[in-house]
Design a protein that fits this description.
This protein has about 140 residues and is of the alpha+beta class. The chain has helices at about 5-10, 25-30, 60-70, 110-130, and strands at about 1-5, 20, 50-55, 75-85, 95-105, 135. Strand 4 and strand 5 form a beta hairpin.
């Protein structure tokens, strides 16, 4: 519950700005607590973002692709799907999935060669384990 304090009470204490009061149910907050979630400070080094588009066979879920990409290298911090295009069944039913990868190294600045190695590993894992191939533009 959130309420604005009455202006008459604020005037009695010479307070000229709006004041709000909130009541928080601690029992509800305790239900939301997850001890497995820990704070990870941001890297002091630049985070690299790369986009990757893959052709995915109809039998493979997008979620399995995201999980495979995320587990391909320990420096891949986040994977998000930002585009999905699916062909009709008569055209083969293939899907084009575009992913945004966030890569971060907490020990130093990532060099282009290391980034290329990570993306190559992602591509080879996707091809060998899921039958997905990197879409060439």
């Amino acid at each position: 519950m959130v309420q604005q304090v009455d202006t008459g009470l604020l005037d009695a204490f010479d307070i000229v700005q709006d004041v709000f009061v909130a009541e928080i149910d601690a029992a509800v907050l305790e239900l939301c607590f997850n001890p497995d979630v820990t704070y990870v400070p941001p890297s002091r080094f630049p985070v690299v973002q790369r986009d990757l588009s893959l052709i995915l066979p109809p039998s493979v879920t997008v979620q399995s692709l995201v999980e495979l990409v995320r587990s391909s290298d320990s420096l891949i911090r986040d994977v998000n799907v930002f585009d999905l295009f699916q062909r009709t069944k008569k055209d083969g039913g293939e899907r084009s999935v575009a992913l945004s990868l966030e890569i971060a190294d907490y020990t130093g600045t990532l060099q282009d060669e290391r980034i290329s190695d990570i993306l190559s590993k992602v591509g080879s894992n996707a091809e060998s384990k899921l039958g997905a191939v990197i879409r060439q533009v």
